[in-house]
């Protein structure tokens, strides 16, 4: 079942090593069929070199395995929370890519420091608060999702306009209109984290870009007046 | 038409991924035929793996498309301003290469810190002032070109001697005697930005090189007394 | 003799260049047969491109060569001390991987700064004290092992839970349940050293993760309640 | 003539791109025949992809071209000074490798910060003083060699024990018992410059290693009591 989505999710997972976002098995990609409410995700701990489309695990939104012989990613419950609360997204990615992890471990947002950021993210990429002991001990992966949702709600950030978050002391989750789109955002997040880390070392006094420049770059690529590319 | 120039501009574009100057489609190269006053440029948003020489777009200096089925690069208007105001140049490159972007986001020139810099750039690579809201809202890409030209005029920098600029909070543009030459300068800019970033971290007190050493290295490679290479 | 172990140790050695952990011959991997009390190790100074399984050297735990035409790694005595004092380990790796060496040269532990670290190391990766002149002049490589063991004993660190150390002003040793497992730990150490170096530059004030998050991540991958992967 | 040496020098030049020490043509390697007092060196400005053994230029120690159709490297005069003053060396390398250039531009020695350094360099790698205007304007490349020699004489450094230097605001020269050996030293210099740069950022208070550890590591690889490798 869901052969096309399995293939897409498989291919999106294989983009993680291609773009140098993962060491060993430190990452996972999922996609969702919004009509059937079924999620396809990478199995846990399987090496990318050995991964096949058939190994993808199919679950419902409550986490029940519908098809698949392998355990799903240990981060599955986080993906499911994001699909439930962010109805417009259709793919989710988690990695431990080193520059995004640097900001996550530092407990800092990735500020919007230039047009490379603004072309994809309509404002800073937020870091969550630290999770409480009770949130870590019980239902950890589900509560990881909850703290992400809380971050976007409390800071009134639209998850379609900023399709990425840093979980404090952990690492990035990104999402998008498809599994591949979510990987695209993971690549951009890693690249702008690298650039902005170095900018902060070089000149922390000029880090936030002007809001009109942020608007211009985000809106020339997104929304009804976009004019970038071949649309 | 302009088959030879299209091929050259295509090949110069393909050097951007070769030299690791671009992620996804974040870059574009153009070239000009100075006799016909026609510019050839990469189409907007087309992946490098799928790019072909035939897809190159031909425009006049007012930005009218003379040949081509695809939209030209969204940065085309910036290229055109540079061709109009810098009559000696025949190729232009724009990228978001990370070390040059680091200085652009920091709002800082790349200072002339050593002979690697002086072999190519006859003085600091300037950063523009920040663009004003009115410049961003209307005719943004054209006004990006205007602020580059203003920077060179106000600081009395010869664009043939310093064939590169950082647009504030954005990234680098470089140019040269051909599309390939402009890419060459983009590679050098990225490399010296990396070296000089690290020098600034290690010892900010000795950053500017002696002017006679700058002269020596620039002039042993450029001008009538050059003796580097096989000329 | 020990053909299977030689092959394993050979393959584990070849992972060092694959994972960019070595320049030239700056690394070595060994494995042990705990029943026969024999150690198999890389020969000294042999380039990885020319290495063969047959060249592996077999020694007893006193350092006597049992089989092999080549000199064993100059670090052999350190490996032997680790096998004697840490009975649960079956593979040892030494490299000069640059991010781990950075912490070793700085004389600093790699602190547990995030879940990437906690997934593998149950606490900071310790740096040894500096070695004394008498320890360097006589039996240097054996005494390097002794100072590693002292570090784990004095700080009451379980070498199975933190399978890595930094020798002060020198570099990392890692170990594991097999030669390959020890290499795995060397890769993780390099990656977390890189991430945590940058975190320390960005925000030294939030460097230690909460102990309950450390517990959660370490224990979801290790021990009887682990649920990561396909076990 | 000198076909064997030309081949060796050609192959040593080709190691520069292999070890990522050069961008474009920013490097050159030479070798010497000490019986004939003839030097073989890379031609100036020829791309590595197009280089052939036959293109190598043969000169005497006064810089007269004995064989070859191409101009020799623009840095030839520096190589010749080193061969004249350091009679034990048989190969010389110049690059603009970025980590070594970082220290050169900062005007700082690469301190002996750990055993990776001590395995090859018996003490800090010195930076020269800045060159004076008169030294730059006249006979620049010869005087570059002179200032290197002055540095080793004034600081009483043995060029066989520290086969590398940083020319202030310029970059590294290394040398060795052959052209390949000189490249080996260029690789080590780049690697220890990278490591020690990061150590200086992390903990500048513990940068110099103990002299007995420096002795131990240098002498276990060099001299009559060396025991590293298969000698």
What report would you give on this structure?
- Four copies of one chain form a homotetramer.
- Chain A is an alpha+beta fold and 231 residues long.
- Helices cover 41% and strands 14% of the residues of chain A.
- Chain A has a single domain (3-221), classed as Class II aldolase/adducin N-terminal domain (L-fuculose-1-phosphate Aldolase, 3-Layer(aba) Sandwich).
- Chain A has eight helices and seven strands; from the N terminus they run αββββαβααααββαα.
- A seven-stranded antiparallel β-sheet of chain A has the order 4-3-2-1-5-7-6, sandwiched between helices.
- In chain A, strand 3 (57-60) and strand 4 form a beta hairpin.
- In chain A, helix 3 (98-106) crosses helix 7 (179-202).
- The longest helix of chain A is centred in the C-terminal third of the chain and has 24 residues, at 179-202.
- The first copy, chain A, is globular.
- Chains A, B, C, D: InterPro entries: Aldolase_class_II_sugar_metab, Aldolase_II/adducin_N, Aldolase_II/adducin_N_sf.
- Chains A, B, C, D: It is an enzyme of class 5 (isomerase).
- Chains A, B, C, D: GO terms for molecular function: aldehyde-lyase activity; L-ribulose-phosphate 4-epimerase activity; metal ion binding.
């Amino acid at each position: 079942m869901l052969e096309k989505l399995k293939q897409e999710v498989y291919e999106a997972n294989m983009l993680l090593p291609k773009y140098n976002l993962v060491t060993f098995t430190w990452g996972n990609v999922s996609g969702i069929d919004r009509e059937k409410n079924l999620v396809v995700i990478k199995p846990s701990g399987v090496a990318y070199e050995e991964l096949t489309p058939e190994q993808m695990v199919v679950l419902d939104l409550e986490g029940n395995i519908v098809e698949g012989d392998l355990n799903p990613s240990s981060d599955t419950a986080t993906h499911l929370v994001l699909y439930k609360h962010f109805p417009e997204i259709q793919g989710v990615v988690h990695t431990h890519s080193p520059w995004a992890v640097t900001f996550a471990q530092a407990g800092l947002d990735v500020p919007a420091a230039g047009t490379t950021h603004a072309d994809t993210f309509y404002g800073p990429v937020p870091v969550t608060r630290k999770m409480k002991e009770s949130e870590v001990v019980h239902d950890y992966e589900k509560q990881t999702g909850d703290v992400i949702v809380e971050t976007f709600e409390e800071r009134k950030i639209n998850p379609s306009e900023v399709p990425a978050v840093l979980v404090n002391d952990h690492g990035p989750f990104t999402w998008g209109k498809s599994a591949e789109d979510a990987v695209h955002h993971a690549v951009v997040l890693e690249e702008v984290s690298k650039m902005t880390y170095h900018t902060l070392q070089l000149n922390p006094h000029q880090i936030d870009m002007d809001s009109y420049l942020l608007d211009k770059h985000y809106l020339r690529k997104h929304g009804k007046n976009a004019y970038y590319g071949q649309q």
